[in-house]
C-alpha cells in the first residue's frame, strides 16, 4: 500500500515540518517484518514549538469560537473520518498488525467519538448555588488551556478519539505525541482535522521516542493537563514529571481483567466474549479479559468449550483479516513468548492453542494464542500483564472466593460477570474493585458514552462520555454580591 502523505514530518501550527533534529525513525510492518515507513524523530525543540502554537491557538482563533462552532468542526472531522475509514483501517492494520475488520471498527469508533463530542460541546452547563441573601453564586466550566496527550500503539484511533476529541470539545488546544511503534493513523488524523477546518495550532502532532518527545511533553511548563495511556512504569514517569509543574494527569494504565462465570451462566452467550475479549488485537488491549474465573461446577465444561474455540483460531497477516494478527514488534513477541515458556517449563496444562496459517510471512511477529488452565491466582501468569494472546482459567467456589480472586491483583480496570441471579449481579458489581463491570456482556459494544478508567495500578481519572469533559475542564466559582 502506498501511504498517501509524507510520514516523516511533525504537524505544528497547521504545517508539516521536518523535525529540528532532522532525524527519523523506522516503522516496521509487524505482519512480515518489512520496512513500512519512516516517521519524524521529534524532540524537545519540536515540543516547544508545538506547545507555543497551541497557546497561540488557545488565545486566538480557537478561543474565539463558541462551543457550538467547536462542535460543528468536530462533527465535520467525524464525517471525514467515516469517508476515509477504509484508508484508515488499512493504515492501522499495516502499522499495528490488527486484522482489517478490527481496524475498520476502530476507524468507525473514532468517527463516533467525534460525533459524540461534537454534539456534547455545547451541552456542558454550569450551575447556580443557593447561598446567602444578597448573593448569586454560579459555576463555570472552562478549558485547562493546552493539554498534552501521549497515546499508545495498540489503539491509536480510539484513544485519540476519547482524549483529543473530548479535550477539543472543551476548547483546549492539544499537543499529541503518538507511539513510535505505530502512529500512521495519528498523522492521518492531523491531516483530516486540518481539512475539516480545525484552526491552526488547535491540534499539533509530534511523533518521536518516549524518552525524548514524550518526556519533553510531560515536563513542559506550558502544558496544563496531561492524558497518558500506556504502561504503569511510564505512567509513573509521566505523572512525576507533570507533578513538578502541579499539572493534573489522567492515567489509563495496565489491567489483568477477569471475567467471572457462575454455574448458572448462559454459556452459549458467554463463550464468544470469554475468548474474543482475550485475543482481540492479539491480546494487546489494556482491558483484555486475561483471567477467566469459573465456578468449579462448570469449570471443566468451560475449559473444554473455550479450548474448542481456541483450536479453531487462525493467525496470519493483518490484511488477510483472520481471527488474530501479529503482535506489534519483535520485542513484544519475545515478551509474550517468555510467559508462554514459563507455563511450559512449569508443566502447566496448556488447554489449547490457535494455529498460524501456513503461508504467514516468516518475518512476521506471530504468537499462537494460548489458553492455560489449572493455575492459582498467585501465579506470575495470573498476576502480571502479559499484553498478548494468553488467557488463564482459574476455578473458584462461591461468591466470596470469586471476589477475592477478582480483586487479588494490583490492577482494577474492567471485569465481566456471567450469572442469571439478579441479586448476585448487584452484589458482585459492588464488591469488585474496578472501573467498569459488565454483567452478561463484556465491553457493551465499546460505547463511547461509557466512562472508562481504572483504580489501583490501572490508573485514575476517566475518559469517554461526559466524564471526559469534566476531566478536560476546570470548575470556576463566581460569587456576585448584589445586595
From TrEMBL:
Respond yes or no to whether keyword Heme is given for this record: no
Highest taxon in the source lineage: Bacteria
Entry annotation: catalytic residues: 252
In terms of SUPFAM superfamilies, this protein maps to: ALDH-like (SSF53720)
| Keywords, in A-Z order | Oxidoreductase
Pfam family of the protein (one): Aldedh
Fetch the InterPro entries from UniProt.
Ald_DH/histidinol_DH (IPR016161), Ald_DH_C (IPR016163), Ald_DH_CS_GLU (IPR029510), Ald_DH_N (IPR016162), Aldehyde_DH_dom (IPR015590)
Protein name per the record: Aldehyde dehydrogenase family protein
Q: Which family does it belong to?
A: Belongs to the aldehyde dehydrogenase family.
Among its keywords, does the record have Oxidoreductase? yes
What sequence ranges are listed for the domain Aldehyde dehydrogenase? Answer: 16-478
